[in-house]
Inverse folding.
């Protein structure tokens, strides 16, 4: 073998060796790239995660839909809660029951069930009592005698106005004869019972008789006389309270001037549907000068004036 041949053989060997090493490196790179593939797979795992992210959103949406459905289902519940609101709205029924406990009210058998009147000490003159509003049990009236020695009494705060009115009428030559001012509850009860008996005597059953009586005499505690705020007038020689009083000079004078002293005709002929009381030209109620003038000018009832008709 020549030296030249030996060099060629060595060169070949080196070439082979270089090739083999290079190949080995390539294989390793492939491995690394394959280990990088999992990285890609990780990305792939991430993308499923992304898909999961999307998916959960879908379920979330679906959940929302479900929730909306649930809400729709809840809506009936809302209806139920609305129903429970209605139950809350039915609370007045409980109040009614309270009043209903006034089934024990002595004239409940005739359909009466008055609420307790609201007492406003600053607007005492505008106190409303009628078939629907009764004086509280605790209500006390401080009365005073009116002038003239009749022995009739009114709420002491009304007396000065009453006396002035009577004096002014007298100055005009008109006699205002007091027949009935303040009445105790006992007196009112006996008046009312007497009227019931009158109607039962005519053949009406008790409930009917009671309802008929209530149009003329109010039940105890529901009369303005019980509060000392009203006066019934008669004429000389006629203490009977009847519609003939409307034909008297006294009535004409009252119609013209009573409001200047704070009094109003309480039960007019055309307001019986509101007051539930027959025409009583003799019954004059103190409401205060301003209210009396306003009520007279507008022609409304006290119930309407107070917005409680
Ligand atoms: Zn009266």
């Amino acid at each position: 073998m020549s030296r030249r041949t030996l060099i060629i053989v060595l060169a070949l060997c080196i070439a082979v060796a270089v090739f083999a090493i290079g190949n080995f490196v390539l294989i390793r790179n492939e491995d690394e790239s394959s280990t990088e593939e999992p990285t890609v797979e990780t990305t792939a795992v991430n993308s499923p995660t992304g898909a999961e992210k999307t998916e959960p959103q879908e379920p979330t949406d679906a959940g929302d839909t479900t929730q909306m459905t649930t809400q729709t289902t809840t809506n009936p519940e809302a209806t139920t809660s609305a129903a429970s609101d209605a139950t809350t709205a039915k609370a007045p029924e409980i109040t009614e029951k309270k009043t209903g406990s006034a089934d024990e009210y002595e004239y409940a058998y005739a359909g009466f069930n008055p609420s307790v009147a609201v007492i406003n000490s600053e607007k005492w003159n505008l106190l409303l009592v009628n078939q629907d509003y009764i004086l509280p049990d605790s209500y006390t009236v401080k009365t005073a005698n009116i002038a003239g020695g009749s022995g009739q009494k009114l709420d002491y705060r009304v007396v000065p106005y009453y006396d002035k009115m009577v004096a002014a009428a007298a100055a005009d030559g008109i006699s205002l004869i007091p027949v009935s001012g303040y009445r105790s509850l006992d007196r009112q009860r006996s008046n009312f019972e007497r009227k019931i008996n009158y109607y039962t005597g005519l053949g009406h059953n008790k409930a009917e008789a009671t309802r008929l009586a209530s149009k003329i005499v109010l039940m105890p505690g529901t009369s303005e006389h019980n509060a000392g705020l009203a006066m019934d007038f008669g004429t000389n020689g006629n203490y009977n309270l009847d519609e003939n009083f409307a034909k008297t000079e006294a009535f004409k004078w009252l119609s013209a001037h009573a409001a200047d002293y704070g009094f109003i005709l309480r039960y007019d002929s055309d307001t019986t549907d509101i007051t539930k009381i027959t025409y009583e030209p003799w019954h004059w109620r103190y409401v205060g000068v301003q209210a009396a003038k306003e009520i007279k000018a507008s022609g409304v009832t006290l119930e309407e004036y107070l917005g409680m008709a």
Notes: The CA atoms of residues 232 and 241 lie 8 Å apart.
